[in-house]
Write a structure and sequence with these properties.
about 270 residues; mainly beta; five-stranded mixed sheet; 23 strands; elongated
């Protein structure tokens, strides 16, 4: 500084400029199942100066101030994990990542499948996106790691279908394959549509049928009380919204077998209440 008389004086200070810390962290697996999940967040942050504080947040809620963090989620969905670091000079940096928690599917007993001895038949597990399949045992299958393998065998087999989805949830379905010598259309001898969840619907049992044409059911007076071409739907014992009587009914059905031949079958069954 110089005044008007030309007198001069000076002073100075030393300024220190340091880089902000560099925040970073690794996740053991960012996509996990709701069952037995454990997210491990390993802090990899660095700084020229010593790091002094760490703050972990999940969806804006502070959950920890430790260097590393372990987290278990009891709810499904996406969550944002954020790490904020500060050095001894108060310089800060932060980083956010997304973790995903998936719902645990439930295994099911699939409807049994009928096959002809040593004739190829495509089996179908439940279809899910990004799912790995493992059929146990492997007998009779051309590929045990896909959703729809081809079955060709001469013995009855019950398969356990182990599945692992994109969230690493593991669940198991059961599928039983019954073996028959001839192609056929069969019907149960009776059913009881009383709403107890057991035998409430009567439907055809198809053996070696590639295309089902129809199922028709008639009462004792010859009136058509049911007709449909979907073999999985079946009759629930109602006609025009009214419960039908306990009596013997007649059925006829038609389909095209795996060799392109027409098969027609018919018979009687009893409705029980």
């Amino acid at each position: 500084v110089t005044n008007k008389e030309g007198c001069v004086d000076s002073t100075g200070i030393i300024l220190h400029a340091v880089a902000n810390p560099i925040v970073g962290f690794n996740i053991n697996d960012s996509t996990q199942c709701i069952t037995n999940n454990q997210f491990l967040f390993t802090n990899t942050s660095t700084s020229i100066l010593a790091l002094s504080t760490f703050v972990w947040k999940i969806d804006a809620r502070q959950v920890s101030t430790s260097k590393d963090y372990s987290y278990f989620s009891n709810t499904i969905g996406n969550k944002t994990i954020r790490l904020i670091v500060s050095d001894i000079e108060g310089c800060t940096d932060s980083l956010s990542k997304i973790i995903s928690v998936g719902e645990q599917p439930i295994g099911k007993q699939l409807p049994f499948v009928s096959a002809i001895v040593n004739r190829p038949l495509q089996l179908n597990a439940r279809a899910f996106v990004k799912t790995n399949y493992n059929w146990i045992p492997r007998q009779g299958l051309n590929n045990y790691t896909i959703q729809n393998p081809i079955f060709q065998y001469d013995q009855e087999v019950q398969y356990l279908i182990s599945m692992q989805n994109e969230f690493n949830c593991i669940y198991t379905d059961t599928l039983k394959v019954l073996i028959f010598k001839e192609k056929d259309i069969m019907m149960p001898k009776a059913f009881s549509p009383n709403g107890d969840g057991v035998n409430d619907v009567i439907r055809p049992f198809l053996i070696g049928i590639q295309e089902f044409k129809y199922l028709r059911i008639f009462n004792r007076w010859g009136n058509l009380v049911y007709q449909d071409k979907d073999p999985n739907k079946g009759w629930d014992g109602f006609y025009k919204g009214a419960k039908q009587a306990m009596e013997t009914y007649t059925w006829i059905a038609e389909g095209i077998d795996i060799d392109g031949q027409t098969i027609k079958r018919g018979g009687n069954f009893v409705l029980l209440r």
